[in-house]
Design a protein that fits this description.
Blueprint (H helix, E strand, L loop, with lengths): L1 H25 L4 E9 L5 H12 L7 E7 L16 E7 L2 H9 L1 H10 L3 E10 L2
Antiparallel strand pairs: 1-3, 1-4, 2-3
């Protein structure tokens, strides 16, 4: 009976201790890397598809935690909306180190080398969790 009572008293502490790593991970400051691409030939569906193919090649880089490719949404036009870009890439990294690994990764460097002829402008917004 005493060992059962000890277990029941210790169970909440064990449950809390086992959740500490998960809670610690939730408090890390992730980095969001959002890239917008403007095509040189904005009317070319082939160029758009090639760029999307190239961006898709970045997905396997191991430090990428979230990966999304998008095109401008058909939302109501407002002064604050810039929908002049062709494609966007949204990625999330655990931290700045993960982002830096991504920047120097051979897949990323090959992407730039192979597909940069398609765009005439790229804008990047990097932000950290607060």
């Amino acid at each position: 009976m005493t060992s059962r009572r000890k277990f029941l008293l210790a169970a909440p502490a064990l449950a809390l201790a086992s959740s500490v790593p998960a809670l610690a991970g939730a408090n890390e400051k992730q980095l969001v890397h959002h890239v917008y691409f403007w095509l040189k030939n904005a009317s070319s569906k082939d160029d758009l598809n090639k760029l999307i193919e190239g961006i898709s090649s970045l997905r396997p880089i191991p430090t990428v935690r979230q990966f999304r490719i998008g095109v401008p949404a058909a939302t109501t036009k407002r002064d604050v909306i810039d929908d002049s870009y062709a494609v966007s890439l949204f990625t999330v990294f655990d931290d700045i180190k993960g982002h830096d690994v991504y920047q120097e990764h051979p897949i990323h460097l090959k992407f730039i080398e192979k597909y940069s002829y398609l765009w005439n402008k790229v804008t990047v917004y990097d932000s950290m969790d607060i």
